[in-house]
Structures are given as structure tokens and as C-alpha cells.
Amino acid sequence: MKYRTILLFGAPGAGKGTQGKILGTIPNFFHFACGDVFRSLSAANPLARVFIEYSSRGKLVPDEPTIELWQQFIENCERTGRFHPDTDILVLDGIPRNVHQAEMLANTLDVMAIFYLHCPDFRKLVERLQRRALKENRLDDANLKVIRDRLKTYDLETKPVLNFYGRKLVHRIDSTQTPVQVLGDILGRIAKVRGIDG
Ligand code: ADP
Q1: Ligand 1 atom nearest to CA at 16
Q2: pLDDT tens per residue, the chain (198 residues)?
Q3: Phi/psi at 97 (nearest 5 deg)?
Q4: Strand, coil or helix: 183
């Protein structure tokens, strides 16, 4: 059985985490943020070092350990009763992050919709990331060069994921709006997605 899935998509700083956390509080929605899981690894885990090595340069962690971590985390949530794939919709934030990851997950995910938090204003993204650096103590948000590299990685490697799934699944949301307006747009559309509409 494939996991019924919604993807939160968009550049670093577009607001995926903010929206994902809120959606995850709705009954029958389960939120998974890939970056959060990397950041929660204990220092003793060798992958924690790999994560810091890549994320501090604005690069993606290699695909194999990323997908393996994802699989272990989700299976653990299933085993411990936090995630119920027969009733829950999986809300993925930050994964799949390139076409290869999307291919690796093709047999696992039934992607029903993609919410593309679109932000045409580069300066706004940078501003948000720099604000977050202070609030959440994130090293990768503090350095302008790293921010630029992450936005470049997003353009080159992550954006093609939209074409992989096809435009029909994509709901474009203006992420320059306030969080509550973005949430309103997502909720207005999510309820109409076939399979979620009850
Ligand atoms: P943002 O959306 O602001 O870039 P994330 O918390 O999603 O922040 O990601 C932080 C970093 O974690 C990324 O720059 C990357 O190095 C790593 N990362 C997160 N998700 C993935 C993924 N699916 N594949 C590879 N690397 C990832």
C-alpha cells in the first residue's frame, strides 16, 4: 500500500515548515519535515556529521542515507502508532528534494497534491531566513553565501520535482501573503482534493 501524500513545496524560507506544523495538528494529517529529522539526530549518529557537512555548504545530503532515514523514521512512527497510513494523509516538507529522490519514493508515495508556496521575491526569502537564523539558531540561515547556495540548489535540483509529478497536481499559492492567508488558501484547496474530500 502506498502512503497517501501531500507535498509542501517551495524555496527555503517560503514557509513550508510553518504551514506543515499547522497542518500536522489537523486530525488524520501527519507532518514530516526532513530537515527537522536531520537536526534531531544525536551527535553520536554518523549521519549527523554528514548532515552538517552538506547543509553548512547549502548542499543536499546524499540521496541514499536521506531516503533510508526517512523510511526508518516513518516505519518507526507506524510501529509506535503515531502514523496510521490507512487513515492518515502524509504531509511531506522538504522531501523529495530532487528527481532522484522522487524516483526512489515512487513505489512508496501516492502523491495526491502539491502545494507550491511560490515566492518570486528573492529579497523576501533572504530576509525570512536571516530572521529565522536568530530565532531558531540555524547556522545555515545565518550566512548570506550559504543562503544563496541553498537557493541555487533549490532552483537547479529541487524545482524539477514539479515536472516529475506533473502540473496537474500542483496548486500554486502566493507565499508572500501572511501565514494566515497562506493557510486559508491551502485549506480552501485541500478540502477539494479528490481522496481527501471525504
Ligand atoms: P530549508 O527548507 O530552509 O532549506 P530544511 O530544514 O528543509 O530547510 O533543510 C535544511 C538542510 O537539510 C538542507 O539545506 C539540506 O542540506 C538538508 N536536507 C533536508 N531535506 C533534505 C532532503 N530531502 N535531501 C537532502 N538534503 C536534505
Answers
A1: 2
A2: 899 999 999 999 999 999 999 999 999 999 999 999 999 999 999 999 999 999 999 999 999 999 999 999 999 999 999 999 999 999 999 999 999 999 999 999 999 999 999 998 889 999 999 888 888 878 778 889 999 999 999 999 999 999 999 999 999 999 999 999 999 999 999 989 988 876
A3: -110, -5
A4: helix
Closest by alpha carbon to 98, among 142, 64, 132, 72?
64
Atom from ligand 1 closest to the CA of residue 38? 12
Tell me whether residue 198 is in a domain: no
Does the Cβ of 132 fall within 6 Å of ligand 1?
no
Residue 58: CB atoms within 10 Å: 19
**What residues make up the domain containing 117?**
3-190
- Verify whether ligand 1 is closer than 6 Å to residue 97 (CB atom): yes
Pocket of ligand 1, candidates 140, 145, 175: which has the most ligand atoms within 8 Å of its Cβ, to mutate? Answer: 140
**pTM value surpassing 0.90:** yes
Grid coordinates of 156: 537547479
- Tell me whether residue 116 is in a domain: yes
Question: Which CATH number covers residue 69?
Answer: 3.40.50.300
Report if residue 195 sits inside a domain.
Answer: no
Instruction: For ligand 1, say whether the CB of 94 is within 6 Å of any of its atoms.
Output: yes
